[in-house]
Amino acid sequence: MTTATTTPAIEGNQPVPQTSPPEPGASVGWPWHRAWSWLRLLSGPLAAVVAILVLMSGAVPVYTEFTIGLGAVYALMVLSLSMLASWTGIWSIGHPALLAIGAYAVAYGSSHGWSLQLTIVLTLAACAVIGGFLGFVGSRFSVLYVALLTLAFTLVCLEIVNVWQDVTNGDQGVPVNTISTPFGDLFPSSPEAIYLVIGTLGLCLAAAEAVRRSSIRMRLVAAKTHPVVARTIGIAPEAQSALGFAASGAVAGLAGVMLGLVSGFVSPETFSLVLAVNLIAATVLGGTGSLIGAVVGGAFLAYAPSVASSISVDQPYLLGGLLILSLIFLPEGVVPTLTGRLDRWTGFTERLERRKERALAATGSETVAPTFPKEPGSTLAEVQGLGVRFGGLRAVHGVDLTLVPGEVLGIIGPNGAGKTTFVNALSGIAGGAAVEGSIVLEGKELRKVRPTRRRARGLGRTFQHAELFPELSVAENVLVVKRWATTADHRQAQRLLASVGLTGVAHRRPADLSFGPQKRIDLARAVTESPRLLILDEPFGGLDSEERSFLAAHIRRMRDDGVCVVIIDHVLDDLFAVADRVVAFDFGQLIAEGSPETILQDPTVRSSYLGEVDLASPASQASDGQSIVLSLESVAHRYGGVRALQDVNLSVAKGTVLGVVGTNGAGKSTLGRILHGSLKPSDGARTSNARISLVPEGRALFKTLSVRENLEVAAYASGIGRAHMKLRLAELTEWLPERVRTRMEISAGALSGGEQQLVAIARALMAEPEVLILDEPALGLSPVMVNEVFSQINLLAKDGITTVILDQSLNRALQTCSEVVVLRQGEIVARGNASIDGFAHEAEHAYFGQTPEILVEEGL
Amino acid sequence: MDQLLITVLSGVANGAVYGLVGLGLVIIFQSTDVMNFAMAAMATTASYLALSMHNAGLALAVAMVLAVGLASAFGLAVREVLIRPLGDGRLFAALVVTMGVAISTEHFVGQHWGEQPKSFPRLVDGSVAIGGSRINTQDLLIIGVAVVAMAGVAFLFTRTPLGSAMRAVAESSETAAVLGINSQKVARIAWALGVGLATLGVLLYAPNAGLTPVVLAPVLFRAFAGILLGGLTSMTGAVVGGLVIGVLDNLAATYVSASFRDTFVFSIAVLVLLVRPQGMFGRQAFVRV
Predict the structure, then answer these.
(1) Is A388 on the interface with B (CB under 8 A)?
(2) Which 3-state string (H, E, C) describes A158-223?
(3) A176-210 burial string, b = 16+ CB within 10 Å, else e?
(4) Cβ–Cβ of A320/B172 closer than 8 Å?
(5) Of B178, B266, B289, the CB nearest to A429
(6) Does the ipTM surpass 0.90?
(7) DSSP symbol at A482
(8) Closest Cα to residue A696, out of A669, A667, A716?
(9) Of A140, A431, A717, the CB nearest to B179
């Protein structure tokens, strides 16, 4: 996961195995954090009351009163648009139409004897239903589709407004008449109408602030930023965006009623698409998602004409110019940027949050995690004949597996063996795949259970890359699981975070933390509802040794509580240290089962990692080692906080065939890209003057381009001339096998995997490289194709191209490479070549990360 | 029957314009991930410029060619000065910046040339009789020019290494970067080409609609509907989508109700996308964790 960190990553706290119990009578002091919280909640209504009192005092001229009222209407609109955009990711162009519905409703109602409260209730209902529909439909698609949908809605409404003369009086517009309220008749455009609008705005701000703190917002944001993961914690994205748009639509409709009351007249040109654009502009200017920003944006729209004329700039220039300048210089918007700066300067939020956390800890009472009974011989889950199919590709098939409570099951297998697909099928997020077979958890067939409900059935999981919700705080990432987060839930979240060793970071964003703490948050989120079956996808990857032993202890504790823990990992020694039982996957099937001590002795398992050894081609000749074409010195690399490479020294001599071997996640691809020069290492130096081409993992052909075009693109990129390109193209076409050579015009996506690999190599050769780097050239290929690809690579090496092969398979590398280095967890742990006595053995131990002594004791 | 033929033909002529604008939008979107909301404003400015140059004595065809060039330069300037400083991956910010450009530009046009509609001369006058009905020769010219322009684009994108490189960037800018393709250069070409194409379409369309600062808003919306209908990732889709919208629009105006043509056209577009979210020619994407 490449997390863009704007602030320097902090390492989180040291793993603290247990929360220290709150000191008795710990002085928390006067709860000013709570006072502040109430103040924030009530500041909207309070400000409204103050504004109304000022207006009532008569200190403000009448025309300004009207502008203030209009500003309040705009602020309501910006509020509804801004919260919708910030919490659900939907940008609506349909808000002018919703505004129109409210405005015409009050115009019609006032002349047909409706009371104000009836008008408001009807408007809210109508706009909520419309909004809910738009949100539900729009959730399935992209931002641009929603834009089209809401654009269409506005255009349709405008046409209806034009035609429905009885209600709208067409272009002429309709007046709003006096309307009855529980407090007597209300005259449109009267001071009372303006007070009403300001009061409504105050209440809506308070409501928005209340929602902002609740798990309603957390769940909306979770569904927006990571819909797939949201499903696994019980959140249905469609329902969330329907809910969000319904609420936003209702507020927009209410704003329409208020607009009618303030202006006393409703005419169609108000509701043009220009208004939609202006509202978006005001939202962005004020700061998307900021409540104060919404008020600022609304005031700006109302005052823009007078501001513009007072500084003699035309209004559109002012709006357009400010919009562009703010996006370039204040990307968050005016209010969040200013308050953010102020806050960083004063450290207010930091102190506030720490105070809150302490207060929560002081009131919390320790509850023990539930333990589940472990009856001997009982079964927790039964998987039978499970298969997953992506189109024609069988990713997983025929998997039978029994899970019992209180055990740790390890799943191993090479990259692409189907492990993650298998657990995705269990949690119901296998994408567009067809799933067959049965999964029975505690007697219930899981396949009939929607993904969002599986969590409630006792299934929890974590993700390879943590997959946190980036816009939620650390605590909120855990709280989001709850539909209504209570104070008790806040305490529980804090306890869970403490139990995984995270204290004092609850209010930070995940991106502020390094990868280890991020994975611990993911774990805390997964165990919030005490799952009976917990799936961990590569929990050890990317952690340092202290974090790994902490995690192992945590897993053992959960097992002792009766939880069944299923772990996929490539860090085998850590996995074997906690697993009670291990199963191995290859080609989507279960190929072996055994204890951690015995599983690697299974020859099928060993060869699935180490590779087929029936390669007929001879190992290439070692070079003279004289001229170094490429070298790395003390290179280290981190992604965000994740360590990928550490202290790598490597020099590649001209003519060498260098094999870089390691399991998935060992750092091979990172090393490949650094060698290639397309990735700059975070530390250390790279020296090379050679022309280098990289064949990326998974071929990475342009599938929409033809084979010939794929080659031409590479030539174009390397800047060689047209005539030379023709020549090169002809040569490499000749180099390709006949079944590809004769189909140069078909799209590259239509070729088989092996053929694609050869085309990818040819594409890399177009630039006439001196060094060729191949990332996992055998991945996903059948043994026959592997042999063909590797014999071609061998021929190239013999022609004198220096070659670097990044491979999972140690045996293949030993056979085809003149030099081999073994990478494990980002470090080079062995180097040598097949001709050195005992190197193969040493490399194998280095590869699996087991010390030779242990294996010798076991008689291997 | 003749009436139907004329309705469809002039629908095709309008659709060809939507197709050209849509093609311009898709070319820019594919290469740079930016939906250029200012496309209409840029093309409108160029149309007024063409009119001014023509009134100053330049031949109409020459003025139009110059206007296309100026529009491309305008697009290029916006991309380099306003969009590029935003940085990568800020799709929405870029969209809003183009909105800002549109607001300012439309106002500038109104200030400089006035809000009153101006008539724009036809390249060719007269009409052609089909049975009992007549169709403007200009409409046939629009279809002809659009076909030539689209063929040119097709040639560029399918027969030249530059075009392949542009499609490569569109498919995976990551892999393109590994190969060493200069994505900034591709982005600049895409903006110039995209805005130029849209302007060409608009210049041909202008005589039918007359010129006002905001006359092109419906054209932009229809082009937008067309590209979503066609499937956002496909240039063929943009053209076909535009044509479908153009013909539907004309059929609605003639046979359904002139006051409900937006309702008719956009409802159909939304409904089609409900059934087939990726559009007629779009690709479905899988998400995996």
Answers:
(1) no
(2) HHHHHHCHHHHCHHHCEECCCEEECCEEECCCCHHHHHHHHHHHHHHHHHHHHHHHCHHHHHHHHH
(3) bbebbeeeeebebbbbbbbbbbbbbbbebbbebbe
(4) no
(5) B289
(6) no
(7) S
(8) A669
(9) A717
**Residue A257 near residue A188, CB atoms below 8 Å:** no
B242 Cβ contact partners less than 8 Å away, ≥ 6 residues apart: B15, B16, B17, B18, B19, B20, B21, B22, B23, B222, B223, B226, B227, B230
∠ CA B70-B71-B76, rounded to 5°: 95
A518, A395, A499, A382: which is closest to A443 by C-alpha?
A: A382
Could you tell me the pTM of the whole model? 0.83
Q: How far apart are CA A155 and CA B252, in angstroms?
A: 15
* pLDDT tier, A760 (very low <50, low <70, confident <90, very high otherwise): very high
Q: Chain B contact for A51, CB < 8 A?
A: no
- Write the single-letter amino acid at B279: G
Quote the CA–CA distance of A275 and A350 in Å, as a whole number.
39
- Which residues contact residue A63 at a Cβ distance below 8 angstroms, ignoring those fewer than 6 apart? none
How do strand A771-775 and strand A802-807 relate by DSSP bridges? Answer: parallel
Q: Two tokens at A503?
A: 């204290």
Q: Where are the alpha helices (DSSP H) in A61-142?
A: 62-88, 95-111, 116-138
| Residues in A touching B228 (Cβ below 8 Å) | 144-145, 148
Q: Is A463 on the interface with B (CB under 8 A)?
A: yes
CB contact under 8 A, A324 and B82: yes
CA gap A295, A807 in Å, rounded: 58
Q: Across the interface, do B288 and A314 touch by the CB < 8 Å criterion?
A: no
Q: What is the CA radius of gyration of chain B?
A: 19
Phi-psi region of A333 (alpha: psi -120 to 50; beta: other; left: phi over 0): left
Q: Which residues of A644-680 are buried (b: 16+ CB within 10 A; e: fewer)?
A: bbbebebebbbbbbbbbbbbbbbbbbbbbbbbbebbe
DSSP character at residue B124: S
Q: Which residues, at least 6 apart from A547, have a Cβ–Cβ distance to it below 8 Å?
A: A15, A516, A520
Interatomic CA distance for residues A630 and A687, integer angstroms: 6
Mean pLDDT of the region A776-781? 81
Q: Token match 């044509």: residue?
A: B243
Whether A98 contacts A131, CB under 8 Å: yes
At B1, list the tokens.
């029957």
Which distant-in-sequence residues (6+ apart) come within 8 Å of A161 by Cβ?
Answer: A100, A104, A168, A170, A268, A271
Q: How far apart are CA B229 and CA B277, in angstroms?
A: 9
Report the distance separating Cα A598 and Cα A576, nearest Å: 10
Q: What is the distance, to the nearest Å, from the Cα of residue A465 to the centroid of all Cα atoms in its chain?
A: 9
Show residues of chain A in contact with B287, CB under 8 Å: 227-228, 431
- Give buried/exposed letters for A373-390 (b at 16+ CB in 10 A, else e): ebeeeeebbbbeebbbbb
* B140: region left, alpha or beta (phi > 0 left; psi from -120 to 50 alpha): alpha
Q: What is the dihedral of CA A594, A596, A597, A602, to 10 degrees?
A: 50
Using a 10 angstrom Cβ sphere, with 0-12 exposed, 13-18 middle and 19 or more buried, the burial of residue B206 is buried
In the prediction, which pLDDT does A3 show?
40
pLDDT, residue A374, reads 62
At residue A665's C-alpha, the angle toward residues A661 and A668, to 5°, is 40
pLDDT mean over A532-549? 85
pLDDT band per the 50, 70, 90 thresholds, residue A625:
low
Q: Beta partners for A403?
A: A381
Query: Rounded to whole angstroms, how far apart are CA atoms B137 and B151?
Result: 21
Q: Does residue A442 come out as left (phi exceeding 0), alpha (psi in the -120 to 50 range) or beta? A: left
Given this model, what pLDDT does residue A207 score?
A: 96
Pick from A672, A678, A681, A700: nearest CA to A807: A672
Which DSSP category does A666 fall into?
S
